[in-house]
Predict the structure.
Amino acid sequence: MTETIHTLHRGTRPLLISVPHVGTRIPVDQKQRYLPRALDVEDTDWHLERVYAFAKAMGASLIVPRYSRFLIDLNRSPDNTPMYAGANNTELCPTRFFTGEPIYHEGQAPDADEVQRRRQIYWQPYHDALAHELARLKAEHGHAVLFDGHSIKSTLPWLFEGKLPDLNLGTANGASCAPDLRAALMKVLEDQDRFTQVTDGRFKGGHITRHYGQPQDGIHAVQLEMCWSTYMQETPPYALDATRAAALEPTLKALVQTMLDWSPDA
């Protein structure tokens, strides 16, 4: 069952890349609950498994889910605690688009039992695999770095004001990784001038970054939230833009190389 939920490429270096929102599948037995618009899963982090594919040749591990965040959000706390107090948030089992409208037919949103079922079948195996891979990397290398990759439409008034910076590095305000790793990644972003960037702005890291980022225990986690406009079309059918993606790749490679080169003992 696990292999139908995610794929895991096991690398040889102390870096695991997670892309928890790239999945697009909705189980057949759940489709009738959703409004027709929702079946297009528009809030997907489109194409990131392809955008980060280069990292496998660099030695990184890569974990990729198959099911949509509209079924269950792998980057939310299992107890559904809001990530950002005082702001609009989406739930463990989202009930609204990023534009604020409902995704389910009236009365068809999952109840507590259904949320728990989805958590057991879809959420838990992904997190078990993620935790086990981090433990393997730490055992082999003495430490592990988790890079949580995300992307989002550049303007979404229901979630944030104005246009989001192109590249948004999140470290839970510095709590999820060592200070020198955070500084090195910030320098990569600051040294390029093609994309706007910010660290620990609107997006500081979700559940995965905050939960697994335990630098005192040798696990360092960071999140990168990118605007779709950096590598793809922001309107349906949300196609990958090869020219934009090629222009973005050097910066992403520099971030990945920085995480591979970094060591807590340096």
